[in-house]
Design goal:
By secondary structure, the protein is mainly alpha-helical. It is globular, with a radius of gyration of 20 Å. 61% of the residues lie in helices and 3% in strands. It contains twelve helices and three strands. Strands 2-1-3 form a three-stranded mixed beta sheet. The chain folds into two domains: 6-139, Serine Threonine Protein Phosphatase 5, Tetratricopeptide repeat; 195-269, Serine Threonine Protein Phosphatase 5, Tetratricopeptide repeat, CATH 1.25.40.10.
Length: 269
């Protein structure tokens, strides 16, 4: 069975611009590739002169994805629906419609679309990860874990580290710290610099009062994302707990240089 095509995209600490309810979990967006998975979408002319009425689902989906990234949701939806007409049942077109629904605040509608896509292609890890991320972001963290397991069971899934990091975050939310730590550590075994897993481990160690371990993880996090406010806040609080006010002050200064104003204690995760 031919795989649907997909593009991986993470926007800072959020999944999608303007979709705060999705938090930092990793979703996967559609691309214009005809098979396999890619991290880079091809270049197309999105001026409206080409690729909008050709019946080429890949071109239409690429245009829709670009419109979505620009925040032009009506135009994105138009292209996604044309792609569905050109390729009925396209999982990626329905995924894009789910992202659009979520960006408009229709979390329930987005969930129905993500679930329908995952059900239609039960062996596809991309779609399983997406639905798991939606479940976790919408108060169903424990239920999401099975979907991340499904994603990791897909031998063609290109980035199991993302599903593992998601599983760690969601296991923590579900009150399963042992599984959370195991998932984050497994993610770091695949990618020692994965910021989502480093953040999870740092916050967990801090919450458990393991400040030296928290310090080690937050320093690794900052090595990857030196201007990440959440990392700087956590580093500042770790040093305060350790009694190193000089180090805490340095982190506070770095944080204020990014976001002038009073700093607050970091929210543990």
């Amino acid at each position: 069975m031919r795989r649907e095509f997909a593009i991986l995209a993470i926007l800072g600490s959020l999944l999608l611009a303007g979709c705060s309810q999705l938090e930092r979990l990793t979703l996967i967006r559609p691309s214009a590739q005809h098979r396999g998975y890619t991290q880079i979408a091809p270049r197309y002319d999105f001026s409206g002169k080409h690729g909008r009425d050709t019946g080429d689902a890949a071109m239409l989906l690429a245009a829709g994805s670009m419109f979505f990234q620009r925040g032009q949701l009506d135009e994105a939806e138009e292209q996604a629906r044309k792609a569905l007409k050109a390729q009925p049942g396209s999982g990626d077109a329905n995924t894009l419609l789910g992202l659009i629904a979520d960006a408009r605040g229709d979390a329930a509608g987005a969930g129905l679309l993500f679930r329908s896509v995952a059900d239609a292609a039960p062996a596809n890890g991309v779609y399983a990860n997406n639905y798991g991320a939606w479940l976790c972001a919408n108060g169903r963290a424990a239920e999401s874990l099975d979907w991340f397991d499904r994603a990791m069971a897909d031998p063609a899934y290109p980035t199991p580290v993302r599903a593992l990091a998601n599983a760690g975050d969601c296991a923590r939310k579900a009150g399963q710290p042992v599984r959370a730590e195991a998932s984050w550590r497994a993610a770091l075994a695949l990618d020692a610099t994965h910021p989502q897993a480093l953040a999870g481990m740092a916050a967990m160690a801090f919450a458990q009062g393991e400040y030296l371990e928290a310090r080690a993880f937050v320093e690794r996090w900052l090595a990857v994302a030196p201007d990440e406010p959440a990392a700087l806040q956590l580093a500042m609080q770790v040093e305060e707990k350790r009694g190193d006010n000089v180090a805490a002050s340095r982190y506070r200064s770095r944080l204020q240089a990014i976001s002038p104003g009073p700093t607050t204690a970091p929210r543990t995760q």
